[in-house]
Amino acid sequence: MSFKKNRYLLLSFILLAITSCKGQKMEEKFEWTGTVSAPEEYPIEVYKGAIIANDFTYGFDAIWGTQNTGWGNDGGIMSVSTKQMEAPDSLNFTWLSLIEQKFYTGTWKLDKNKISKLFREGFINTMNNQKDTYTLIKVGLAPKGRVVVWLSGAGFQTEVGAFQAHDTTITAEKAYDNAKYMFKPNYIQLTLADEMVMKPDIRNRISQYGAPDMDIYETYRKRYNWRPQFILPDGGKASTFFYSYLNGEQENRTGEELSANEYASRAVPNYVTLIWKDKPGKKNGLEIRPFDQKEIISAFEKLGNSNPIDLVIKLNDSKTAAQVSLKNKDEEIKLINSKIKISENLD
Predict the structure, then answer these.
(1) Total Cβ atoms within 10 A of residue 128
(2) In sequence order, what are the residues at sequence separation of 6 or more whose Cβ sits closer than 8 angstroms to the Cβ of residue 170?
(3) Helix, strand or coil for residue 234?
(4) Which of 27, 31, 244, 279 sits at a 20 to 30 Å CA gap from 211?
(5) For residue 208, what are the CA distances in angstroms to 201, 203, 283, 293, 312?
(6) Cα distance between residue 7 and residue 12, in whole Å
(7) What tens digit of pLDDT does each residue of 184-217 get?
(8) What does the alpha-carbon distance between residue 113 and residue 69 come to, in Å, rounded to a whole number?
(9) Rounded to whole angstroms, how far apart are CA atoms 220 and 237?
(10) Each residue of 251-309: pLDDT tens digit?
C-alpha cells in the first residue's frame, strides 16, 4: 500500500474518531460522598443501600449501624478513593425502623440533571466569600418509609428528591452474615434503651411533649412564598442571613442576594441567624433557635399561599430584645414563643 493511501486511511480514522466523540456527551464529574440522616426520636438501622452513578456506586450496609443524628443532620461518612464521579441517577435503600419494628425498602430514580446543575452552579461560601459547591449526598429515612435526598455543602442543603419505600420482610435466615445481629432476641429493645442512641435529652423531650407525629416529616416539606424583613435600630444593615428549615434544607444569603431579598418558595424555618452592622460599623448578631414549631407551622398554615408572607424581625432601640411576627397584606400573627438570643460587638 502506498504512503499516500496510508495517509488517507489515517486521516479517515481521525475524522471518524472526532465525529464519534462529537456524538457522545462528555459527562461532568464531581466530588461527592454519601451519608444517612434519621430523626432523633426515630432511630433506624442501616441494612443495605446504594447511591448509584454511571461510573461509581456509593454503598451502605450494616457497618453503618444505628443512625438518629436528627432530621437533615449528618450521619457517619465513609471516605472513598474515587475523587471525581458523575452525578448519581438512582438510589436503593433497605433499613430497619426500630420504633416501628419493621423493614422498609425501595429503588428510585434520581434527577441526575437537577443534581448536576446544583453541583455545577454551587454557591458562595460566606465563611471565605469564595464560590463553593455541594460535596455530600444525604439520604433521609423517616417513619412510614419516607425518604428524602439532599445535597449538602458549607451553609447550604437542598432537597433533590422525595420518595416512598414499602415495608418488606427479612428473616434471620435470609439476612447476610454481618446483618444477623439485628435479629437477636431483644436487640431492638436493648438498642432503644441505650443512652448512646436515645440520649437523655431525647427521652426527656419525648416524655414532655410526646414523640413527633410520624406524618410530620411530610408536613415539613410544605412550602410558602416568603422572605425575611428586618427592622434594625441606628440605621443598621443586614449583612448575612442563615436559614435552617424544618424540611432539612439550609441556605446562607449575603451581599446582593440579601439586599434584593426576593420572595421565594421556602419551607417553614426551624431556626435563623442574622448578622447585621450598626451605623458605626460594629457587627451584631441575632439568633432565633428554635422557633416554636407548633406556633410557626400554625401561623404559616393560617396565612396560606394566597399572598406573599414576610417574616418580620424587629429589634428594639437598645438591641436587647426583638419582636417576631408573620404577616401578609391582610393579617399579622405574632410569634411569642421563639427563643431569641442577641449578641453585640461580634468583631
Answers:
(1) 9
(2) 47, 94, 103
(3) coil
(4) 244
(5) 10, 9, 38, 15, 30
(6) 9
(7) 999 999 999 999 999 999 999 999 999 999 999 9
(8) 29
(9) 31
(10) 999 988 899 999 999 999 999 999 999 988 999 999 999 999 999 999 999 999 999 99
- 255: its cell numbers: 451581599
Angle, vertex CA 84, rays to CA 80 and CA 90, nearest 5: 80
Secondary element (H or E) of residue 168: strand 166-168
What's the confidence (pLDDT) of residue 25? 58
C-alpha grid cell, residue 236: 443598621
Q: Do residues 272 and 264 lie in contact, with contact meaning Cβ atoms separated by under 8 Å?
A: no
- Residue tagged 448519581 (cell numbers): 88
Query: Is the dihedral angle over the CA atoms 299, 305, 306, 309 positive or is it negative?
Result: positive
Grid coordinates given for 54: 454511571
Q: What is the residue type of 334?
A: K
List, for the chain, all residue ranges whose pLDDT scores fall below the cut of 50: 3-5, 8-24
- Nearest to residue 221, comparing CAs of 299, 144, 135, 159? 159
State the Cα–Cα distance between residues 290 and 141, nearest whole angstrom: 23
CA atoms of 42 and 65, how far apart (whole Å): 14
Task: Fill in the amino acid letter for 314.
Answer: K
